Amino acid sequence: METMRVKPGPQELQAQVMAAGQCTACGMCAGLCPYIRFAGDRVRIVYSCGLEDGNCYRSCPRTPHDLQDLDVQVFGAPREDHLLGTHRDIYYARAARAVRPAAAQYGGVTTALINFAFEQGLIDGALLVGGSLEQPLPRLATTPAGVNNCAGSKYLAVPSLANMLTARRTGLTRPAVVGRPCQVTAVRRLQGLENNHQAAPGPAPNLVIGLFCFWALEAAFSAFLTSRTRSRVTKMDITPAEVIVDTTGGPLSLSLDEVRPFIKPACHTCFDPTAELADVAVGSTEAIPGWNTLVVRSARGEELVQEARTARVLEIKPYGAERLPLLREAAWRKKKRVLEALAGRPEPYLRLPVDYQLAIAGEEVMRDEYYARSS
Amino acid sequence: MNTMRVVLDAPGQVALLTGNEAVARGALEAGVNYAAAYPGSPTAEVLECIAAGAEMLGVYVEWSVNEKVAMEGAAAASFAGLRSLTVMKCDGLNVALDFLTSLSMAGTRGGMVIIVGDDPSAHSSAKEEDSRYLGRVAHIPVWEPADSREAKEMVKAAFDLSEDIRQPVMIRMVTRVCHASTNAVLGEFPRREVNACLGPEDKFITWIEGHREQEDKLRRAAHRAEKSPFNTYAGPESPETLVIAAGPGSYYAEEAVAQLGLQTSVGVLKLGTTWPLPEKLLRRYLRPALKVIFVEEVEPFIEDNVMALAAQHLDEIGRTSFYGKKSGHVAGINGVGLGELTPSQIMAALANVCGPDPAHERPAPPGWPELAGRDLAFCPGCPHRASFWAIRAALELDGRQGIVLGDIGCYTLGKGRTGYYLLQTMHAMGSGVGIASGLGQLWRFGFSQPAVAVVGDSTFYHAVVPALINARYNQANFVCIILDNQTTAMTGHQPHPGTGIDPNGNPLTAIPLEAVVSGLDIPVTTVDPYQVDEAIQAVYQAVQGPGVKVIIMRRACALIAAKTSAAVRVYVDQSRCRGDACGCARFCSRVFACPANIWDKAQGKARIDEAICNRCGVCASLCPVGAIVVEQYQEKVG
After folding, report:
1. Domains and CATH numbers, chain B
2. What's B185's DSSP letter?
3. For the segment B80-97, what is each residue's pLDDT rounded down to a tens digit?
4. H-helix or E-strand spanning residue B426
5. What is the structure's pLDDT at A345?
6. pLDDT at A107 (0 to 100)
7. Chain B interface, mutation test: which of A47, A60, A226, most B Cβ atoms within 10 Å?
8. Band of the pLDDT at B313, cuts 50, 70, 90?
9. What is the pLDDT of residue A3?
């Protein structure tokens, strides 16, 4: 798909992404560049570098890119499953009790996998989100204790890839990333620059654990939360029905209507709720407390999961047959909405080959595909 | 600054003294008992020199919180019969002026001398204000020394005059006199018992009747000025052309007369007692002269007053042509009435006025060699650079066109490249906070930009507290950032109430900034500007939401830190620096622009000038590829 040529640079990043409300606060550009900083979930160019092109633009998940190219780059082939993306397996999973931190969300799979990867020497650092639920912050963990401090979902958009700078400065060569789907895309785009031998500033992360994310919240949600409770927030969970906030003063239930105004606008045009380009993707089950959904996508992801099972770090059981259509339908509904939203735009960031588009276009397609697979 | 020479007890010995040292020496020889000042260039060193002799000679020496308080303290000593000195720069005299104009109506008792440093060309100031006018407004005598030797003698004589007329006497120093050294003969230190006390009749009350006394006292001072040794004349008995000069310009004038061979026709009357004028003396030389040339820095103070005198005595003086700033004949280096005078400009003026005799024309003196242009810049490692970067980043992140308000201090440089062009206002000490207090009320007129006032730590104590009280009480919205480098850096690291030491380094109990701000019921957070990301977050958070807030950016002045923490080396690992292939576009040397971050043309890579690097390591935390290495040494370097 050849479209209008633009110089891939900071001015376009500013115009097409930041000023257009399309920034997802992944933090990648801030992780590459001293001219781009962040505060809360705001990422902005704070001084003009004077250059006409830059990796800030090329690695942004919201500047034009072709999804099939990324599929091929990451998995070696275009996707077959247009609703959940390329994957090898899908399970229920949880961390073994001994390695599950108290703060872990659901089954603590992410924390356990990252710590296991540390032990195996597969990674030498991890870009995570820590801090409190009220004020989550990017964290660069280099020890299991550091990883455990970041356990638990934060739900706020945190530009944690900004810590790429710190990782590079401190000499890390094999950092892992745990991130939202947009952050996974950013990492894959950066890896693509390396593959193309373009000037990429140092090694890109080589293990990417994606988190299911139908939307993330703006930093302003923190103020709303603290206006609703004086107690410290210890855990938060978003179910299809409500937002449950555990605090030191007891649980608090927020309706989705209360929370929805804080959704980052960019999330409304996100095509990827299940981190389709990650090595493994982790989410809730919405059915079985204490367990995660684990989608194994890449060979590297599969290897890690198998080794973690062998080492009795991870427990796994088959994904519920009754849950799969629900997950698929949720993904499909979001993708359909997004395609419709993007259709009216002169140059949408997401470029999809025709078959990718058609796969989402109608409900029948989704149903047919589902019945074909499950029969 | 050589305090040893200032306190050397060797009467008769000749010593090379700067003007500042000479003033201190003169005060000590005059038996000064009480000296108080707020540091300001070019006279900041005077108090430090007096402090060196404080213990030996029993002088109370104080760095005061501001010039007004310094002058009030000195006045108190005078009221109690002691000799007192107060020192400030011209801006400081503005601060103290309210008190001074009252003081001179009520009068003084013990000798009181006010040293004011003017800075023609504003070498280390924001303005080149001519303080002589303020002395005139306050109805006090103003004297001007031409060099150190004269400065020392003038200070002693000023104490005598002050006690004679019971008024403070002001001595106007200019930067050249303060900093240049000339020989002076050391005098004795007096050994006299003093007993401070105010008798029941010692009353000092500003009241309108005092005005009559002010005028009487000035007349007495003018009478004494007629015989003053500080007014000298050199030249023919009846000069055709009279140069009236004051300060260092009088030497330039003498030199120009000699160089141009005008000794037979041109006389130079050097005035040391600039106000009130020695009118009879002036009339004596104005009478024969057909042309009069004025040589003074910066404004036409003497020129105006002498021309008024000539007009008043027109019948006696007759027709005379006046050349100076009014006529445009005498220009400073930046234009007429602008900047310092130089010998060559006085030469040119004299040749011009006394021309067109070719003998008066001289070949132009050789010009200065071309010097490389140099930005005004924060010192290497200066914490202000990191602070300004953080403020800039936070305001860009905020995206509402935040306004940064500055004032006087090292951080004034924030108006330029070194501070990322952040400052939009810069006036007097503490004014940024008062202006922010005003901007912080303009939301009712649609003003929606965040306002950030930056102040120094010393400035905070000097002039910020009332503005903060005003802002807090009247519910203004803005952020005050105290750039706390834990000293009065710009004038040479003098202590202030936050430092916990006196002028001699003896311990006092500090008043922490946090305690003062908290006491005003204003929320305060403290960050280390070297932790740039944390500083950005702090500023960003603070500009959200209403109210007045204070952020203290605390990090010792790099020039102090560099002396104490040498066990670190900062260098560029050029194998990691990607040069122009990096997308950073030479961020360290071009944008962050610490003078120690330089570009290695030969290698096409960044480099650190380790000779000037103060090893703060902030650039290492900003380099996108981690090419700048902060290496800890095992051993401390001396």
Report:
1. 3-186+212-225 (3.40.50.970), 232-360 (3.40.50.920), 383-561 (3.40.50.970), 565-632 (3.30.70.20)
2. E
3. 999 999 999 999 999 999
4. strand B423-426
5. 82
6. 87
7. A47
8. very high
9. 46
Asked if residue B375 has pLDDT above 60, the reply is: yes
User: Which is more confidently placed, B567 or A304?
Assistant: A304
- Partner residue facing B397 (CB), from A39, A49, A56: A39
For the beta carbon of residue A66, count every other beta carbon within 10 angstroms: 15
Rounded to a whole number, what is the distance in angstroms from the first to the last CA of chain A? 35
CB B240 within 8 A of CB B263: no
Contacts of A364 (CB under 8 A, 6+ apart): none
Cα–Cα dist B462/B458, whole Å = 6
In total, chain A counts a number of residues equal to 375
Across the range B619-623, mean pLDDT stands at: 92
Confidence of residue A17 (pLDDT cuts 50, 70, 90): very high
Listed residue (A183, A188, A174, A198) closest to A55, CA to CA:
A198
Cα B384 from chain centroid (whole Å): 20
Average pLDDT over residues A136-152: 90
Written as six digits, the tokens of B106 are: 């009520």
CA distance B325 to B306: 13
List, in sequence order, the alpha helices (H) in B453-557.
Answer: 457-459, 465-473, 513-519, 532-543
pLDDT at B363: 56
Chain B: which residues have CB within 8 Å of chain A?
392-394, 396-399, 420, 533, 536-537, 540-541, 578, 581-585, 587, 591-592, 620-626
* Candidates B536, B621, B624; nearest CB to A201: B624
Pairwise CA distance, residues B550 & B129, whole Å: 32
Confidence check: pLDDT of B358 > 80: no
pLDDT digits (tens, 9 = 90+) for B188-229: 999 878 899 999 999 999 999 999 999 999 999 999 999 999
For A321, the token pair is 């047959």
Q: Determine how β-strand A314-318 pairs with β-strand A89-95.
A: antiparallel
The predicted structure's pLDDT at residue A366: 55
φ, ψ of residue A287 in degrees (nearest 5) = -140, -45
Preferred mutation among B537, B578, B592, B628 to probe A, highest tally of A CBs within 10 A:
B537
A229 contacts A299 by C-beta, under 8 angstroms: no
Report phi then psi at B44, rounded to 5. -60, -25
